[in-house]
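Chapter summary example.
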Amino acid sequence: MATAASDRQERAALVFTRGGSMGYLLAIAIPLLVPGRNIYLSHNFEANYGVPTNETQYFLWYQRFKATNFNLTEAIANNRRLRRDTGFSRTYFYGQLMERMDLYGLNGTGCMQRMVCEMCETPVGDHNGVFGDVIEVIFRPSSSVDEDIPAMYYEAESSGSNEGCDQYRPFCAIDLLGLVSIVLEV
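The structure predicted for these 186 residues follows.
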């Protein structure tokens, strides 16, 4: 005859610290063959998730969607279709950069115009190899096919090539390109 203590199943609880999160990071690094330097082109994919602080939160997402018409399979298919149709474009990239700048309290539009202008005012492609070429292609809108981006970026590019970028500096007080580069007079 078994006792009451031996009839009970062992239970375990998985509890995380309050306010914690868990993340996954996948990085693909491609070495660039530059003599005497270790340079990599890296693509990072990251996902962060808040972790539950008590056992009732494990089933919270299920309860939330159980009574709705939410179809996870359809949502995933729509998301894939949207990404496939739009692709990765200059418009998307500029929008993402502006959104990040706005999050840090900067004027995203003004800073983008300043970067485009300064890229044309002081070209970096000639002295920075592949990295400089990539940066110039990104921040010179006329370097690729027309993507219907706002005319203000083409105007900033023209200003950088012709009269300079002083008109854009008051709209973005931080020299963002200066944070990652310096200009050396040779």
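To summarize the output: The first strand starts at residue 21 and ends at 32.
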